[in-house]
Amino acid sequence: MSSSPPLLTLPPLNRDGSSASVTEEQIRCARDLHPIAPGKVLLLSDSSVLKSGPDVKMAEAHTLQLLAQLAPSVPVPILHDAYIDEEGKGYIRMSKLAGEPLSKHWIHMSDCERQSITKQLARHFREWRKIRGSFLGAVDAGPCPDSIFGHAHGFSANQTPSYGPYSNRREFCAGVVEALRNSRPKGKVDSLDQQTVERIVADAANISLDDSCDDDDDTDTAGFVLTHGDLHMGNVLVLDGRVRGIVDWSEAGYSIKERENLETKCRSGKASWKQAVDSIVTASSAKIEHWSYIINEMMAYSGI
Known about the structure:
With 304 residues, the chain is an alpha+beta fold. Helices cover 34% and strands 13% of the residues. It has 8 helices and 10 strands. A 5-stranded antiparallel beta sheet has the order 1-2-3-5-4. Helix 3 packs across helix 7 and helix 4 runs antiparallel to helix 5. The protein is globular.
């Protein structure tokens, strides 16, 4: 097992909108590449894009910095600048990568072409997975972006609870128990829910549930790995049989090792892609089954 790279203290990003390098005129004239998205991804020029919106967080910009320094072989956008304006809207200006979404080409690819793309993605995954954190949460020490915490029931938009960051797996599991309670009407769990709580608590007490896929020592913090968190085919850019970009790191953060596989599969529509995921994002089958059960229980009332 290679030693974990040192944790970096990232330089502060430009958060002063007055010194922004993009003018209002450029924003007005830019083409929105994803008009149905809640935010905007604007094509500023042939070589740069601007991601903007109230949900654009500086954690994504920090993640791009981290990848550029610790996993330079992973094809991600080059960060130019990032800031939050006085109204709380986030802006990230970055390079535009070549290629088209894999989702446009997968169905037309031969088995050989799919295997080639799968192997390339697996190699990139192994590189960013080497990046370790000392906590569970967003790269900038913000709350956990894991979707397991996204099933709150009965909360208004501005009262939705956040979870973490957590300093160890036991705290993380305690947060999952809290999230389970918050996914139930009035925060009340029944006898069946209590069985789920017991499974979550057991995971915290038995970290070595099954680490046959891992080379790491089973310690309380060994498995805090960088995860993309939204690795569907639309976020993989390909050109001429090569993976040219992995984009949209808005859900990235340090998480448990199983997260990448779970998140990728739940965003996978095509059966052939779901099958490929296990080759790209390796994980312990016992732990995947364990956390899949918990996530399904979380969805009892949210439906998502």
